[in-house]
Amino acid sequence: MVLAAGLGSRMRPLTETTPKPLVPLAGRAMLDHVLDRLQAAGITRAIVNVHYLADQIERHVRGRSEPEIIISDERDALLETGGGVVRALPLLGSAPFVIHNSDSVWIEGATANMTRLLDAWDGDRMDALLLLAPAAGSLGYDGRGDFHLDRDGRIRRRAPGETADYVFAGVSIIKPEAFDGEAERAFSLNVIWDRIIASQRMSAIVLDGLWMHVGTPQALDDANAAIADAKARVL
Pairing state of beta strands 166-174 and 128-134? Predict the structure, then answer.
């Protein structure tokens, strides 16, 4: 499930006429960076939700054959992250699935992080698995972090006034049963996560590489520079 329905308000003026998932990063739409990463990890089908400037995203993904793209249409109402997943559940099937923010980008470390996340999934002891990034050193991020992480990979939220070492990197795996009983409405995935954390069935791994919080035009410029620098060092 690729979340591509947001308004991209903080990326204005770039998003006044272009949906944020199609804003170019290193010469490619951010959405294509995500879809390329999913394809490389062996994922063959992606549900992409659309709302803001939806026609542009639909036209754009018609140019791809891999992964197969199925549109979840939210033109009638912006359902936020949780509600968007609930609407798409009939398309997602009965197995655990990946949820990937369309603006979640990073420079890989030694091992592809999507592969690491898929390999770490253990449905016997997890209902959800998050990809986290170190709050310190992540490009474009200056917040106080989201989560604490123990040695067993279990997480807890940062309490008010605290600082946490890790921030959510925009990618997770979750069981569809986690949404049982939820009506289609606008709500955040955090509602689901809090229930899973309380049941002690939420785990996480830490991203290997450089996560980039591309939320503003300045952060986009910084991310372009970081990617160019990484490519130059490889060459």
Answer: antiparallel
